[in-house]
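Protein modeling request. Please complete all fields; requests missing the sequence field cannot be processed.
Requester role: graduate student
Desired output: 3D structure, token encoding
Chains: 1
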Amino acid sequence: MFAPHVEEFNSSTPPFYIFLLVHTFILHNSMLDSESSHNLMSLSIMKQLNMQITKPYKDMYSFDPKKVKCVGLIKNLVFSLAQIPARNIAMDAVVIVIPTCFGMLLSRF
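Delivered output (109 residues):
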């Protein structure tokens, strides 16, 4: 399994998946799911980015009836696609407690 990681931004990093630029860090292995209802970030990625929860959020459910523990919400998280760093996007991201297998899961933007 390819585990995502956070590193200092370097414009020579070749694209593979969707790479997000959050502050001065590239968030590898992010995915876009236009059918997703929320933008999701794992708790471990939030900690690597040294970010803070800005608002509480309710727990959610996965496709099976299991509850997914939500830590909270990061309001107006500003990021850009690493390939187009001049175009910033602000979205809310729900921070959840899951194993880190992707950088972020984005809904439509």
